[in-house]
Design a protein that fits this description.
The complex is a heterodimer of chains A (383) and B (311). By secondary structure, chain A is α/β, with parallel strands linked by helices. Chain A contains eight helices and 18 strands. In chain A, the strands form four sheets. Chain A has a six-stranded mixed beta sheet with strand order 5-6-7-3-8-9, with helices on both faces. In chain A, strands 11, 13, 14, 15, 17 and 18 form a six-stranded mixed beta sheet that branches. Classes of the chains: A alpha/beta (383), B mainly alpha (311). The interface between A and B is large, with 54 and 48 residues.
Chain lengths: 383, 311
């Protein structure tokens, strides 16, 4: 399979001016005033993406993920290194940035298409699809300045996904439009994936990455700290967030609490569907702490089955070894392996204090006739 | 949305598609190739520029002629009626120079601020940024063509035949104008990102530049003697617009020496160069402006790297 994105040794530095003189007079009067600091937004990033891969890029705010994306799209030039791209690319960076408010929707579709690098003939071919996807048929000849913000974004999204790009770059834009339109967008991205196109999804929403991506990169302060299967990368991401939080932790709690092990009384993690299971989670603490306990259950394909309410499960940890019992009274799940994440969060549920990703895996066996994820116990009869 | 869902996955292998490279220093050749490959965007931006400018105005493109017409009328009144300069058919002389100057001035004035004005776009969408400046030059070319057509009709109505033999120099001269204007527009639009005064500076400087160009006066008839006496004649011609304006005047105004309408003396209006000399000079200028265009493209490439953090 062809390599469509090849990022080689890419670094990007920004100069941060502490006092900025942008007029000639100020520059002449203060030739050397204002200090400049070099900020390393990306340092030596290397990775490549094969055709048909869906790659997630995660990182917290300021980790450099948007900078990386802008470099790939060519909006920014890397300070050193190079990026090799194959095939056409459409970026959903900021939807509608290329629109001219004075022009009609129709003219803007062509202009935006041209900005993305597609010819007028190609846009002619997809014009009807764009209009029907954006659902603004009756306003297509209205000047864009009269559009509502939703219409604006829908039209831009419709152009970007319909121009038939080989690579689609998505940056936190899946939060556009109403819920129905969002579902349509996610659906469209899934179809892209099925068609064997390459997708680069940048977000700090781990659930979205889990749901869409096969592989994920984790960026932190401009460094790439993980590149691998989504599950593995997300574990690094979570653990790193935690490690990072230690530095900003005012109460000096972090790192003093850890999840040591998850065991069952029988030692087996196999459970029959409909039965319950008891888990003993060993948490060690260096000092007493009151917080909440969180349990998450995921399928292997990354679908969140359940997450316990962080505020509904208070625990009081004592210094030393604590055992937290988790009773899953009844698992109405069908055949499969389910991964369990456990952790401790603070009383308000805002900050993670300790976390263990994939702390255990439950093997559920089911011998009924239902398919899917959950046993509903449906009985069907004619009345 | 009915296309792909029934047709199934449409897979195309990208093994054979060319590789595009994003890096800190793209070579001039790569930059020019990128620019050429995005010519449709350039045309799209030119047409949207023009449409936006005259959107919702009843007279539309007519306005692009009104302002030059007023300028023309004012200079005509001043120099042929009030302060008689004695040049017969002065309006043709004036018109042929103004057409060139308007194209140059409008381009530079609009292009200098364009990257700052379109910051939102520059920060979000990837395309060769110089296209923004070039689209302003392109829009001015459209107005230039309109004004030139009016000039042709005007000259025809007056029954004034152009210098047919010199006509083929006109395209050469036009391309020199195009390349020089584009080069300056690109550099200025990029420099303005770093120093916002440049836009205002350029507006002032262009007024001065206008009087350094023989549009409303005749070089031969006024300062030529003084400059030549001091051996400074060449300096005047360092302004590339001068030769272009003179070529247009030579083609449309035709006469190089005329009899004054005021006192009957002979006036040297235009250089008495032969056809070959005009052609040679214009070809040299074309070569120089093409080189300037390449230089400007490289300078733009250097300056473009930090746009994001300066905008």
């Amino acid at each position: 399979m062809a390599t469509v994105i090849d990022v080689q040794n890419v670094s990007k530095q920004f100069k941060i001016h502490h006092e900025r003189h942008q007029s000639l007079k100020e520059r002449l009067l203060h030739p050397r005033s204002g200090t400049t600091e070099v900020f390393h937004a990306l340092s030596n990033i290397n990775f490549s993406v094969a055709q048909g891969e869906t790659l997630g890029v995660v990182g917290h705010n300021g980790s450099g993920k948007s900078t990386l994306l802008k470099c790939i799209c060519g909006v920014l030039q890397p300070s050193s290194g190079e990026i090799r791209l194959r095939g056409s690319l459409a970026a959903l960076l900021e939807l509608g940035a290329g629109f001219q408010p004075e022009l009609s929707g129709r003219d803007n579709v062509y202009l935006y298409g041209a900005m993305l690098g597609f010819s007028k003939r190609m846009v002619d071919g997809i014009f009807d699809d764009v209009v029907s996807f954006s659902e603004i048929e009756q306003f297509i000849d209205t000047q864009v300045k009269f559009y509502s913000s939703g219409m604006y974004v829908r039209l831009a999204f419709a152009v970007a996904v319909n121009v038939d790009p080989d690579i689609l770059v998505v940056d936190e834009v899946l939060a556009v439009g109403d819920e129905r339109f969002q579902a349509k967008c996610v659906d469209r991205i899934r179809r892209f994936k099925d068609e064997g196109r390459t997708i680069l999804l940048v977000t700090h929403n781990a659930d979205q990455v889990r749901a869409l991506c096969d592989r994920a990169l984790v960026l932190d302060n401009g460094d790439m700290i993980a590149d691998g299967p989504t599950q593995d990368s997300l574990r690094v991401f979570r653990e790193h967030l935690l490690a990072n939080a230690v530095e900003h932790d005012e109460a000096h709690l972090l790192g003093t609490i850890s999840v040591d092990s998850v065991t069952t009384p029988s030692g087996s993690f196999e459970v029959k569907s409909g039965a319950g299971i008891h888990l003993d989670v060993v948490v060690s603490a260096q000092a007493a702490y009151s917080g909440n306990f969180v349990v998450e259950l995921f399928t292997r394909s990354g679908v969140l089955v359940s997450r316990s309410d962080a505020q509904g499960s208070p625990i009081n940890l004592v210094p030393g070894r604590n055992v937290v019992g988790v009773d899953l009274a009844q698992l109405p799940l069908l055949d499969g392996v389910y991964d369990l994440n456990v952790g401790v969060v603070d009383a308000r549920g805002h900050n993670v204090v300790a976390w263990s990703e994939q702390a255990a895996s439950l093997q559920v066996t089911y011998d009924g006739r239902e398919g899917g994820l959950v046993e509903l116990g449906a009985t069907i009869r004619q009345q | 949305m009915s296309d792909g869902s029934t047709a199934g996955p449409q897979f195309r292998s990208l093994d054979d598609t060319p590789v595009r490279v994003v890096s800190a220093r793209a070579s001039l050749k790569v930059r020019l190739a990128n620019l050429w490959s995005r010519r449709e965007l350039l045309l799209g931006l030119i047409s949207s520029d023009i449409r936006i400018k005259y959107k919702n105005s009843a007279l539309g493109l007519f306005w692009s002629m009104l302002s030059p017409a007023v300028t023309l009328a004012i200079y005509y009144l001043v120099f042929s009626v009030f302060l008689k300069n004695g040049i017969p058919n002065f309006v043709i002389y004036l018109f042929s120079g103004l057409v060139v100057w308007n194209m140059f001035q409008t381009s530079i004035n609009t292009a200098t601020g364009v990257i700052v004005d379109r910051a939102a776009l520059v920060k979000k969408v990837s395309f060769p940024r110089e296209i923004l400046a070039l689209s302003n030059v392109g829009a001015s070319v459209v107005y230039f063509v309109i004004q030139l057509s009016v000039l042709v009709i005007f000259v025809a109505c007056l029954g004034h035949a152009p210098a047919w033999r010199f006509l083929i120099i006109l395209p050469v001269s036009f391309f020199s104008l195009f390349f020089f204007t584009s080069a300056l527009a690109m550099v200025m639009s990029a420099v303005n990102v770093y120093l916002r005064d440049v836009k205002h500076l350029m507006e002032v400087f262009l007024q001065l530049w206008f009087w350094l160009t023989p549009v409303v006066y005749s070089y031969e008839n006024s300062i030529a003697v003084h400059l030549h006496r001091r051996g400074l004649g060449l300096i005047y011609f360092l302004n590339p617009v001068t030769l272009i304006v003179m070529t247009f005047q030579r083609v449309f105004y035709v006469q190089t020496v005329v009899r004054s309408t005021v006192n009957g003396t002979m006036l040297n209006i235009l250089p008495t160069w032969t056809f070959t000399r005009f052609l040679e000079l214009n070809l040299v200028l074309l070569g120089v402006t093409v080189v300037l265009f390449f230089v400007a493209e490289s300078i733009f490439g250097r300056l473009e790297g930090n746009f994001e953090s300066e905008l």
